[in-house]
Recover the amino acids of this structure.
């Protein structure tokens, strides 16, 4: 049994000299039984630990022996050295070796080589670390793609206003200062918007608690219309608005919802560009309070519509049919709207199937109950 066992067995006398080893122990340390039995001190003790191991050996006979022996039975981990100098971790379970008359003659130990287990643990730790690094990289990648996508719009606007200003300076007249002032104001606004986009995309990717504020739909539209008009002008597209007065209010993260409006209007303008006759290029932006708790937005174009094979993949990140498209616009729109508890869908813009309309819903702010409660005249204080 001792010869067949894969666990190393070792017996030592009270002075710590080896009195017995089995073949598994010899294989583990790479020394023969004769070499081990002849040594004054275990040759598998690494030189750097010898002092420690000697001290530990000495305490085995001192006053703390009982406590140490009890702990050794439970097993303790230490380091041994093979004949070739390689250090390796071992687990030792040890019990006093008692002879027939009940006197302790030394110790008996079972020794397990832990190096295989350690390398598996190390591998799994490295894999875990790599996994976490990949997850972090994925977030950085997601953020970089979204940022470059969303920053395109304010940057394109800044470039447009700047080249417009340069043209004004080429042939200055009496109106030039006022127009320059307006263009510079727009440039400043767009630069600020770019800063807000960076912050909100960052928060969005990190899935942080988002700031939801109650805001009038007219304010949201005012923020994006200058940009939408700038884009529409290039392709000769007219913008039509259908917004009731007073405009409904919604509860949302305004920068992200503005990005949704910019993405949908941009898609609509791009869909008509080149395909729809110039006279018919109209983009309709509509807003309606369709339910006491919900406001519905729509962006309708007169483009070629969406064929079924494109419709099936519309919201897949990086799906695009445009050469210079990233294919992130619609997937971002849907995620933003769904994070607000709303829904985004699309369909033909007219009953005959022409054009496309994208619709989405946003929650209306909860009306504070004190406002709608009828006033009880008996308790109303005199103004
Ligand atoms: N109003 C629309 N009319 C027709 N096709 C559309 C419309 N909106 C989107 N699509 C189709 O859906 C695809 C994906 O749109 P999405 O906005 O996600 O990406 P993109 O516009 O191609 O690129 P970008 O990331 O720059 O927005 C477009 O490439 C286009 O084929
Ligand atoms: Mg797009």
């Amino acid at each position: 049994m001792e010869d067949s066992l894969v666990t190393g067995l070792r017996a030592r006398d009270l002075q710590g000299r080896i009195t017995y080893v089995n073949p598994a122990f010899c294989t583990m340390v790479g020394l023969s039984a004769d070499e081990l039995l002849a040594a004054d001190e275990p040759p598998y003790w690494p030189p750097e630990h010898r002092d420690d191991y000697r001290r530990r050996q000495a305490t085995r006979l001192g006053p703390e022996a009982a406590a140490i022996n009890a702990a050794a039975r439970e097993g303790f981990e230490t380091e041994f050295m093979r004949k070739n100098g390689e250090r390796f971790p071992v687990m030792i379970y040890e019990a006093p070796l008692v002879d027939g008359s009940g006197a302790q003659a030394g110790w008996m130990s079972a020794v397990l080589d832990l190096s295989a287990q350690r390398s598996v643990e190390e591998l799994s730790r490295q894999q875990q670390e790599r996994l976490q690094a990949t997850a972090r990289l994925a977030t950085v990648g997601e953020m970089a793609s979204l940022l470059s996508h969303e920053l395109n719009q304010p940057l394109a606007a800044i470039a447009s206003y700047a080249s417009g200003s340069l043209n004004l300076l080429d042939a200055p007249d009496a109106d030039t200062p006022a127009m320059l002032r307006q263009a510079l104001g727009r440039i400043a606004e767009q630069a600020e918007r770019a800063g807000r986009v960076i912050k909100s995309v960052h928060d969005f990717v990190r899935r942080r608690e988002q700031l939801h504020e109650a805001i009038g739909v007219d304010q949201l539209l005012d923020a994006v219309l200058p940009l939408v008009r700038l884009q529409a002008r290039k392709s000769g597209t007219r913008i039509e608005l259908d917004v009731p007065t007073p405009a409904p209010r919604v509860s949302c993260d305004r920068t992200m919802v503005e990005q949704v409006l910019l993405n949908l209007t941009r898609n609509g303008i791009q869909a008509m560009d080149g395909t729809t006759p110039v006279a018919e290029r109209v983009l309709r932006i509509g807003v309606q309070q369709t339910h006491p708790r919900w406001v519905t937005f729509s962006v309708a174009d007169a483009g070629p519509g969406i064929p079924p094979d494109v419709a099936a993949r519309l919201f897949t990140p990086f799906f695009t049919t445009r050469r210079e498209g990233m294919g992130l616009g619609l997937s971002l729109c849907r995620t933003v709207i769904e994070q607000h508890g709303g829904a985004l869908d699309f369909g033909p813009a007219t009953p005959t199937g022409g054009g496309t309309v994208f619709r989405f819903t946003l929650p209306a702010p909860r009306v504070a109950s004190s406002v709608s409660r009828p006033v009880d005249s008996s308790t109303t204080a005199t103004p």
Remarks:
- Residues 263, 266-267, 329 surround magnesium ion (ligand 2) (CB under 6 Å).
- Residues 369-383 have pLDDT under 50 and may be disordered.
- The longest strand covers residues 87-98.
